[in-house]
Amino acid sequence: MTDTLAAQALTAADAGLICGWRFFTDASEPAEVVNALSAAEWLQRHSAGDASPRDFLWLHFNLSNALSLRWLERHADLPDEFYAALREGVTATRLERSDDALVAVLNDVNFEFNYESADIATLWICVNERLVVTARTRPLRSVDDLRAAVRQGDSPASTAELLEHLMRTQADVLVKVVRETTARVDHIEDAIIAQRYHHHRSQLGSLRRLLVRLQRLLAPEPAALFRLLQRPPAWMSEDDRQGLASASEEFSLMLRDMQTLQDRIKLLQEEVAAAVNEDNNKSLFVLTVVTVLALPINILAGLFGMNVGGIPLAEHAHGFWIVVSLVFTFTVIAAWAAFWRKRRDTRR
C-alpha cells in the first residue's frame, strides 16, 4: 500500500517537469500543455498500444530535481544509454542511435550567458517516434527560445522535426553570440586603428578563448548528425532526414564563421602586440640615449672626484671650463652616434 501511494504521489508530482507539450501530426492543430500526471497517463496508454498515432509528446525536465530521473525511469520507456548518460553526467557532444531511438548530448550557452565567463550548459536528449525528452541542470537559451516559439504557435509535425527546430534554435542563439562578438571586435579594431591599445589585449584574449571553447564543444555535432543520417531510424521520413541535414549544414556554416572570427581576433592580437613592442622599443631607446648622454660626465666626475694627487687642471685658471667643454664635446659625439645608428636602422 505504501509503494502504491508513493508511486501515485510521484506520478502526480511535478517531478521536475519544466514544461510538457502534446503535438499533433497535423501541424494545423495547436499544441497542448501537459503536466506530469497527464504525461504519465499518455505514456501508459502508449506503452499499452492505446495511444493515438496522430500525436506525440515533448517533455523538458530539470535534473536538479531529484524526482526527475525517478519519474522518467518509472514512466518513460527510454534506452539504457540515455539513463546512463544522465547518471554519469556525460557532457561530451554525442548523437547516436540506440535501437529505434536517438540519444544525444548537446552543449549550448547558459541562459545567463555573459562574455566574461563563457557559461556552457549541457542538454541531454532522447527522441523516438512518439516522444522527445530533454533534460538539463541549468537553463539554456536555445530551449527557452524553442518554448517561446511553441507558445506563439510553432507546432512541428514529428519528433524529428522538433529535434530539427531545437538544432536551428541553438544555431540561431550561437549566431547571435557570433554577431555580438563581431560587434565587440569591430569596436576594438576601431580603437586599435586610433592607436588606443589600453586593456584591448585582455579583451581580445577573452573573446578568443570564448570562441575556442564554443567551437571545441560544438564542432563534433554536425559530424555526429551526418553519420546518423547515413543510417536513420525506420520512423524517420525522408523529409525529416533532409531537414536535419539542412540544420546540420547551417550549424557547420556557423562554426566556420566562428573560425573566421577567431583568425581575425588573432590578427588583431598580433597587431596590438606589435604596437606594444614598438612602444617598449621607443621607451628603451629613450632610456639608452639618456644613459649614453650621461656617461661622459659620470666618467669625468668619477675621475676628478678621486682624492689623489696629480689631478690635471687642478691649478689651471680655466680648468673648470676646459672640463665642461670636454664633457659637452663627448656628449655631443655620443648623441650623434646614438641618433645616427637609429636612423640607419630605420632605413633598413
Automatic annotation (TrEMBL):
It holds the Pfam family CorA. The chain crosses the membrane at residues 284-306, 318-340. InterPro entries: CorA_cytoplasmic_dom, CorA_TM1_TM2, MgTranspt_CorA/ZnTranspt_ZntB. GO terms for cellular component: plasma membrane. It comes from the Bacteria. The keyword Transmembrane applies. Keywords: Cell inner membrane, Cell membrane, Coiled coil, Ion transport, Membrane, Transmembrane, Transmembrane helix, Transport, Zinc. Residues 251-278 form a coiled coil. GO terms for molecular function: cobalt ion binding; cobalt ion transmembrane transporter activity; magnesium ion binding; magnesium ion transmembrane transporter activity. It is a multi-pass membrane protein. It is found in: Cell membrane. Belongs to the CorA metal ion transporter (MIT) (TC 1.A.35) family. This is Transporter. It comes from Diaphorobacter ruginosibacter.
